[in-house]
Design brief:
Elements (H helix, E strand, L loop, with lengths): L1 E9 L3 H7 L5 H6 L2 E9 L6 H7 L3 E4 L5 H14 L4 E4 L11 H8 L4 E11 L6 H18 L11 E4 H6 L9 H11 L4 E8 L10 H17 L17
Helix pairs in contact: 1-3, 6-9, 8-9
Bound molecules: guanosine-5'-diphosphate and magnesium ion.
Length: about 240
């Protein structure tokens, strides 16, 4: 059996977690040869998220620093210190379908990284505001133009990685620019990326991303990484995070 981490960044997502945790297809994954552990990376939730995670036998990891980017880097670091083989990440707000995890693993047999593509997949009516739809397309187009490696959905939150790929990523994002930086770091390291169409559903609970402010931060990240491909001070989660 190979060991899989399903990583869920979580900040006050009690309703989302209640919906998706039972949907993680552990038996099917086991039939496919994967022993799955679920890691909830908690950003300091004050609702019942942690209790629900414990109810479903998830490992709860307190993130270092603040923001989704810092949370992902905490999770990547723990993963690199573990004996796990691959990692699939998805948001815990109910927007991504855990039943699609096996499709990611199938692609990881051939690719380093797998990206879940919402824009070429199926976006449920009401799941993405018009502004977000436009912003996602714009940023995706800018990323492809700047980096010369086409991507179809820069800001998706559903990704799969082999361990060797995560070991190469160099990241210092704090917030929602983390996915854009994951893309730029994958390009810099010459990783083979597969894209698969996925479903995108309506969010359960309240959004934490502010469209315009976060869109601007993502854009700046794309420009900065085009000039300085690696963060100077931070390598995959170390640096400005106090890691134990
Ligand atoms: N650990 C942690 N998770 C976060 C933080 N901010 C957002 N998240 C999680 O990241 C995911 C994406 O956040 P969301 O508000 O849905 O942003 P969007 O999907 O980009 O609109 C959700 O599962 C959130 O709970 C944070 O500061 N720390
Ligand atoms: Mg969301």
């Amino acid at each position: 059996m190979k060991n899989l981490v399903v990583m869920l960044p979580t900040l006050d997502e009690e309703y989302g977690l209640r919906e998706i945790l039972p949907q993680i297809p552990k038996q099917k994954l086991s039939d496919l040869g994967w022993d799955a552990e679920v890691w909830v990376i908690d950003g300091g939730s004050s609702d019942l998220s942690i209790e629900i995670a414990a109810e479903y036998d998830c490992k709860v990891i307190k993130q270092a620093g603040y923001g989704k980017g810092a949370a992902m880097r905490t999770g990547f670091n723990k993963f690199l210190q573990s004996n796990m083989d691959a990692l699939v990440m998805l948001d815990s707000d109910g927007t991504y379908d855990p039943l699609e995890i096996p499709k990611f693993l199938a692609q990881l047999a051939e690719y380093d990284v797998v990206v879940g593509d919402r824009l070429r997949g199926n976006i449920e009516p009401g799941a993405m505001t018009r502004l977000n739809y436009f912003g996602n397309h714009m940023l995706t187009w800018i990323a492809s133009a700047l980096y010369g490696v086409s991507t179809n959905d820069l800001c998706t939150g559903y990704w799969g990685f082999n361990k060797s790929a995560i070991a190469k990523l160099k990241l210092n994002s704090m917030r929602f620019e983390i996915e854009a930086e994951m893309y730029t770091s994958c390009v810099k390291e010459g990783l083979e990326i597969a894209a698969i169409p996925i479903n995108y559903r309506s969010r359960i609970g309240e959004a934490k991303l502010g469209s315009v402010v976060d869109g601007w931060i993502i854009f700046k990240k794309l420009l900065v990484r085009r000039i300085f491909p690696n963060p100077v001070e931070v390598i995959t989660g170390k640096g400005n995070l106090d890691m134990d």
